[in-house]
Amino acid sequence: MQARLIMLGLVVMAFMGLGLVAYHYKVEARDAQTAERAAKADLKVAEDVNEANQEAIGRLQAQAAADAKLTADLAEQIASANQAFIDNNAALVALKDANADIRSFLALPVPPDLRRLYDKPKAAGAR
After folding, report:
1. How far apart are CA 48 and CA 42, in angstroms?
2. Burial bucket for residue 25 (CB in 10 Å: 0-12, 13-18, 19+)
């Protein structure tokens, strides 16, 4: 009888051991599913952030291209204005050298009212 009780105890302990192993794997599977859901959520957040960053980079690149075009246009306008000034100055010098009436006119003093108009103090930061 005692051997039967021992055998019955061993069988019960074996089933309890199997139950504990099954419960352990069930808990591990549930934890793995939770971790998988969290990883998927983190992946979605990372993909959304990456997409927003790519859009921002695209906007910044487009703005940089527009800025570069405007800068090139402005540099071209400045070069054109400088060349026009140089050409006009050269034409004035040539005309002054060639015509005595123009030379005498340009030698006249500038009237005080006109001088005040052009001798205004410059604004702060202006060159």
Report:
1. 10
2. exposed
Helix (H), strand (E), coil (C) string for 18-62: HHHHHHHHHHHHHHHHHHHHHHHHHHHHHHHHHHHHHHHHHHHHH
- Rounded Cα distance between 79 and 67, Å, is 18
Cα dihedral 115, 118, 120, 126 sign: negative
Angle (CA) 15-16-17 rounded to 5° is 90
**Residues 112, 116: Cα–Cα separation, whole Å:** 6
Torsion of CA 17, 19, 21, 24, to 10 degrees: -140
Give the pLDDT of the chain (127 residues) as one tens digit per residue. Answer: 898 899 999 999 999 999 999 999 999 999 999 999 999 999 999 999 999 999 999 999 999 999 999 999 999 999 999 999 999 999 999 999 999 988 898 888 888 888 888 887 665 555 5
pTM over 0.85: no
